[in-house]
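Minutes, project check-in
Item: structure for the 169-residue chain
Input as provided by the requester:
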Amino acid sequence: MARKAGEANAINRVLKARGLPGLEESGAVAALAFLVEDHKHFMELLRACEPSLRRDMYEAMSPHLRFVAFPLETYVIAAKEHAEAAQLPVTDKYGFLQPYSMPEVRMAPIKVTELWARCSKCPKETIFVGTSQADVIYTMRSAGWAYDETEARAHICPDCLEVEEANAE
């Protein structure tokens, strides 16, 4: 990427003042990469980099780090999570900054079916719910209730079923 002469001179002055090689000298990237402290520091540098140049920066610096770099995607995901947690502004499709807004998740309404079950042997009663009649009946039977398909009010609770089974033996 071509820089204006003034920008390059300013950067070179800062690098030289810190005892580092200039931009055009060999070893500049390696010297800068050696100064990266840890994964978090590297993620911050990548996050500050122009998005279109991140891969180039990662590939240039990662071999010279004092630690083994994670894959680039790991740093990008961490940066996105940080931005989301901090609710930093985001860029829209035109490149303009927009205030952060929590993504909206919309779900289709779920139809709920319910069945009021009253034991035909004792005063116990309860309500079973599900997404369909079959789901409700399955839930009811899983809870130990007997569901009578022929007579809607002939359901039997688990306690009364145990008594019936004991009497049948």
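Outcome recorded: The longest strand covers residues 113-118.
No further action items on this chain.
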